[in-house]
Specification:
45% helix; Topoisomerase I, domain 2; Topoisomerase I, domain 3; 12% strand; seven-stranded antiparallel β-sheet; single chain; four-stranded parallel β-sheet
Length: 749
């Protein structure tokens, strides 16, 4: 019996059909072990020490629910007599990391093999099994260094930003947020410029009045310096043109410059171009596109969906080219875009092909509506990449009108060869294939077919970045990779730094604060480029990770260099912060001082206002208030928030609870360890602990009792509780902790 382990159950279901009897195909559901998280012993550690030339060796802990899933797979494998294990996680950095952890867990089995495939087809799967490979430790080490970097920055900098009541900072998420905030600042600074324009239509050609040449003194130029000949700031000039065109309905053709325009097909999809195109054509969010693309990949319809590469398999290209000839004719074949050679661009992850259909001969699939739509888009893009250019004839036209000094201009075009555009006919309107019947004879009269239109408008501010355009920005700057694009954007939204308006991204006040007030403590340093959260530094580190993957950089050297650089930048940030009070310190001081007499305030501040204090001065004054018996400091915002949360949780009357303890209002509570707020919090916690255990706690106890082969009564004896129904929260918490320790001790044996 043989075992194949994948990441997703959908993928496992597809592969099971290819292998049949004699195989167990199961899924680990993503990451199984990772750096310690909440609830574990080392969850608060930012980094782990290491010897020179070595990476840290942290305790790799089970992710949520992973232990139960993997233990079940191990038991099934043992009971079924499995003698060969094939680990088939995703073919990228993160997939290799998962494979590494699984290889450790399944190390007792006789043969453990790493296999990978870029497409989930029977041929690809069977070929990978016939040709297993060892773990790529370069990929594993790159994944480890990425984790260590993100952990160090996330923990240390997130703690730093909490002085501004912000949730987190991140190595990639913060510079990504910066692009969104900077774009919003551009919009804020925009000064609208009014303009007027006049247009008409003749023989289905839009014609615009040319008011000014580029060198005219009164030429209309927008705030970026771009000249628009069809716009004028002189309203009376536009009104005059509109009146004349309304009275004289005939135009005389003065020139028709011939030209031919060809449009080349685009290469097959990469992750970012797929997300962007699905947004513009299908109107989908990046999360929706990502989910549907994953489903298509797991079902075996398309190749791996996380890639920066535009290259494709030669055999797949030949299949598609044959299909093109059969469907459209040999004249629709082109040179082809996307060869088999790997890209040499530094910021391109090129381990995998572009996103393409696994069976190019199939343009339609039997599936869900969303999957059909996205597959059609992917198929069309790949087919187009192997097709001829589209060709259009074009005439640049100039007209005059009786009684008007200004000329009119426009372009007439018609398609003479559809080329690659024919496979996108489902998404395009009718394209003219013939020139206007009236022809282009100089001096001919063209009749205006509509009422002339005069438009008065203002220049618009730059467009906000969207989910898809921010990913393009990330890729261009080299600060993102296919595996992190969607999660990075989702993170800054979930953390409350960015709001969505349709697909547009709008920074919140917290987002502005993080980028404009907090990140400058780390940026603009002389330590490295423009600092920790600059695109330059982030891009260099991403390139280093890519270089570790291919063995060009040593992982431990990269990590040690990053630790040194980060330490310098973090220390500088701490020094800078000490120079002035934090927002939280100022808020606390102003609240505390409002409760003091003028004499007490003057004595503490020494003639300054709170905003004029240095960071050290603010801290000294706060310490004075905290240590004074006469000066009672108010309860902190954190204390008040906790009290309100506990009152709500216990479902009690907060006003009555406070009055019983001699407190008229929560705003009157005093802070500090010996303050009334601390006393109130202690009482509320005791009440909460004494309340009945939650259903979640009871369920956990039941499950752990089964694991340890204990009766519920035996479990109750451990904490001196009568029954599971009567156990309180405190007792339940103690019991769960005790049972967990027993499980760990048993595992070590």
């Amino acid at each position: 019996m043989k075992l194949v382990i994948l990441e997703s159950r959908a993928k496992a279901k597809t592969i099971k059909k290819y292998l049949g009897r004699g195989w167990i195909v199961d899924a680990c559901n993503g990451h199984v072990q990772d750096l310690p998280s909440k609830g574990s012993k080392d969850s608060s550690k930012a980094r782990w020490a290491s010897k020179p030339g070595q990476l840290p060796n942290p305790p790799w802990m089970w992710t949520e629910r992973a232990e139960q899933v993997v233990t079940k797979i191990v038991r099934k494998a043992v009971s079924s007599g499995v003698d060969e294990v094939y680990i088939a996680t995703d073919p990228d950095r993160e997939g290799e990391f998962i494979a590494w952890r699984l290889s450790e867990i399944f190390g007792d089995f006789k043969n453990v093999n790493r296999i990978s495939f870029n497409e989930i087809t029977k041929e690809a799967v069977l070929d990978s099994i016939q040709n297993p490979k060892g773990l790529d430790m370069n990929l594993v080490r790159a994944a480890m260094v990425r984790r260590f970097m993100d952990r160090l920055v996330g923990f240390r900098c997130s703690k730093f930003c909490r002085s501004w009541k912000l949730k987190s900072m991140g190595r990639v998420q913060t510079p990504t947020l910066g692009y969104i905030v900077d774009r919003e600042l551009e919009r804020d600074a925009h000064v609208p410029i009014e303009y007027h324009s006049v247009s008409v239509n003749s023989n289905e050609v839009e014609l615009k009045v040319r008011f000014h040449g580029n060198d005219d003194n009164d030429a209309w130029i927008d705030d970026s310096g771009k000249h628009f000949p069809d716009r004028t700031s002189i309203k009376i000039k536009a009104e005059s043109a509109h009146t004349i065109l309304s009275e004289h309905r005939n135009l005389q053709l003065m020139s028709a410059i011939e030209g031919t325009v060809s449009r080349s097909p685009q290469p097959p999809f990469t992750t970012d171009t797929l997300l962007q195109t699905a947004s513009s054509i299908l109107g989908w969010s990046i999360s929706r596109t990502s989910a549907v693309a994953s489903s298509l990949y797991q079902a075996g319809h398309v190749t791996y969906i996380r890639t920066d590469s535009t290259r494709t398999n030669e055999g797949a290209r030949e299949l598609m080219r044959s299909e093109i000839v059969e469907r459209f004719g040999a004249e629709y074949l082109g040179a082809g875009v996307g060869d088999s050679a790997k890209s040499k661009k530094s910021n391109v992850q090129d381990a995998h092909e572009a996103i393409r259909p696994t069976k190019p001969e199939i343009s339609d699939i039997d599936s869900e509506k969303d999957e059909i739509s996205l597959y059609r888009l992917i198929w069309s893009r790949f087919a187009a990449s192997q097709m001829s250019k589209s060709v259009r004839e074009r005439r640049q036209l100039t007209f005059t009108c009786e009684g008007m000094n200004e000329s009119l201009y426009g372009t007439s075009s018609w398609r003479t060869h559809p080329g690659w555009e024919i496979v996108f006919a489902w998404n395009r309107g009718v394209v003219p294939s013939n020139p206007p019947e009236i022809g282009f004879q100089i001096g001919s009269i063209w009749e205006i077919s509509n009422d002339p239109t005069m438009t008065t408008d203002q220049t618009k501010p730059p467009r906000r970045l969207t989910e898809s355009s921010i990913i393009q920005q990330m890729k261009s700057a080299g600060i993102g990779r296919p595996s992190t694009y969607v999660s990075t954007v989702s993170k800054i939204i979930d953390r409350g730094y960015v709001d969505k308006d349709g697909s547009s991204l709008i920074p919140t006040e917290n987002g502005r604060t993080l980028w404009l007030e907090v990140s400058p403590f780390y940026n603009g340093t002389s330590v490295y480029g423009d600092g920790l959260f600059s695109s330059e530094f982030t891009s260099i580190m991403e390139e280093r990770l890519d270089s570790i993957e291919v063995g060009e950089f040593d992982a431990s050297d990269t990590w040690e260099e990053f630790v040194t650089l980060f330490g310098q930048m973090h220390n500088l940030a701490l020094e800078r912060r000490r120079e002035r009070p934090t927002v939280r310190q100022l808020q606390y001081l102003k609240t505390a001082l409002s409760r003091m007499t003028d004499d007490e305030t003057a004595k503490l501040l020494n003639g300054k206002s709170p905003d004029e204090l240095t960071g050290n001065e603010a801290r000294e004054i706060i310490d004075t208030i905290s240590n004074s018996d006469q000066l009672q400091m108010p309860a902190s915002e954190k204390q008040v928030s906790l009290i309100l949360k506990l009152i709500d949780k216990l479902d009690i009357d907060g006003t009555s609870f406070l009055l019983e303890r001699g407190e008229e209002d929560i705003s009157n509570l005093t802070g500090g360890r010996d303050g009334t707020a601390s006393s109130i919090i202690g009482e509320l916690i005791d009440l909460d602990n004494a309340s009945p255990a939650t259903e979640k706690q009871k369920s956990a106890i039941q499950s752990m009792a089964n694991t340890h082969e204990l009766t519920i009564d035996e479990c109750m004896e451990i904490v001196g509780a009568a029954t599971l129904e009567s156990i309180n929260k405190s007792e339940a918490s103690t019991l769960i902790s005790t049972l967990k320790k027993r499980r760990k001790a048993k595992r070590r044996k």
